Amino acid sequence: MRTWRERRVPEVTPSPNIWNWPEVYEAENTAQDPAGAVWEALRAERDWAGLDVVDVGCGDGFHLPVFAGSARSVIGVEPHAPLAERARARTPGVDVEVAPAQRLPLADGSADLLHARTAYFFGPGCEPGLAEAERVLRPGGTIAIIDLDTATEPYGAWMRADAPQIDPDGIESFFARHHFASRSVPTHWRFEDRRTLEAVLGIEFSARTAARAAAETPGRTIPVTYRLRTRTKPTGLLTP
């Protein structure tokens, strides 16, 4: 059952994978990018050591401990209250708030890095979230959006099979218009066994596409490419 705050937020779009199958999604997170290529790319763009970090759409907090290891402060923001509770249990020293990306419960100019991984910022339509990110970032602060590359096979092809409205070129044009630098980060997902791999495919895709993906994956590893998009808020004279 949704919380009162969630009922007040019609702009929240459910994430059927992690909302309905958090344990399977945990296995998916564990399998992703075992070499840490995405983290390495993000750190190269904006090292968060000693900074104030906000993780938007933090889910059950899987990524929060990485930031908490060296950041000055970390706040997780998640619109789905049950996931927020799981995040709090995972990282007791991190504040986790229940709110959407479009209405962050944070003060103006209070963050140095706003991180969002496969959460909300999917291109056209996410302008309210971008505006909120700009509001909470300090001058010189960075928004980092990490999403799956919908143009790269095989994973991108499976996504487009289930959602033919996905327009990879349109997504790229959108972020370019909004002055983001974008780069591809090739990785792979490595699962302990086929059963787990197929369970993850089952929560990410329709039955037909999941069966296709399983047939096109001979072992326990799936090549997956991410897009890392970053934009830094300009610095300048501040007025009272």
How is this structure best described in words?
This protein has eleven helices and seven strands. The chain is an alpha/beta fold and 240 residues long. It has a single domain, classed as 3-Layer(aba) Sandwich (Rossmann fold), CATH 3.40.50.150. β1 (52-56), α5 and β2 (73-78) form a beta-alpha-beta unit. α10 runs antiparallel to α11. The longest helix has 11 residues, at 194-204. The radius of gyration is 18 Å and the shape is globular. The chain starts with a helix and ends in an 8-residue tail after the last strand. Keywords: Methyltransferase, Transferase. Residues 54-145 form the Methyltransferase type domain.
Q: How would you sum up this structure in a few lines?
A:
Keywords: Methyltransferase, Transferase. The chain has 240 residues and is an alpha/beta fold.
**Spatial separation of the terminal alpha carbons:** 44 Å
What fraction, in percent, of the residue positions are helical?
Answer: 25-40%
Average pLDDT reading: 93
Alpha-beta classification: alpha/beta
Low-confidence stretches: 1-9
Percent range for β-strand residues: 15-25%
CATH topology type: Rossmann fold
Main sheet record? 7 strands, mixed
Which H/E pattern describes the elements?
HHHHEHEHEEHEHHEHHE
- Helical region count? 11
CATH architecture group name: 3-Layer(aba) Sandwich
Q: Tell me, what's the shape?
A: globular
Major beta sheet, strand line-up = 3-2-1-4-5-7-6
CATH superfamily: Vaccinia Virus protein VP39
Q: How many DSSP E strands?
A: 7
